[in-house]
Amino acid sequence: HAKGELPLEYEVNLGKGLDEKCLTFLRVRYEAVIEYVNLGLTEGAILESCFGMGHRPTEGEIYMWNEFMRKRGWHDDLSEMLDSGKKKEGMLSRSEIQTMFQFMDADEGRLVNDNHIHINGCSRLSMAGRRGRLTPAIETPLAATG
Predict the structure, then answer these.
(1) How far apart are CA 123 and CA 140, in angstroms?
(2) How many folded domains does the chain comprise?
(3) Per-residue pLDDT tens digits for 68-96
(4) Which long-range contacts (CB under 8 A, 24 or more apart) does 139-142 make?
(5) Which residue range(s) make up the domain with 32?
(6) Is residue 42 one of the residues assigned to a domain?
(7) Residue 146 CB contacts under 8 Å (≥ 6 apart), including other chains
């Protein structure tokens, strides 16, 4: 967002939706994260700051978070929103788009894969980040070992 690369339709939702889920999970305020982003801190430093002022999740919590977020839009309360977005963007025939992250990938011109549904292990703390939104993510010790 600070770089001016965020489309207007995303700007109105800053700090809401998937961002809000992340903020709630880490127990931090949106404004505090934005302050760190504007200071130019790295994603890892921002995340460590969030852990310091909010909640440092356990490996089990990170696993549950990843499983929850990666599947958003797939047979849940966001399914209708996903279908609406696909219709608006002319993607209704794209059956490979089953999650919100897959939709964002397709909408932003990236290849869509099924890693959002079929992934093994807990390799990263997903922070729902796309195009200047909340993007801090770190490798967890579990990921480093396999």
Answers:
(1) 6
(2) 2
(3) 999 999 999 999 999 999 999 999 999 99
(4) 140/59, 140/62, 141/59, 142/59, 142/62, 142/63
(5) 1-57
(6) yes
(7) 121
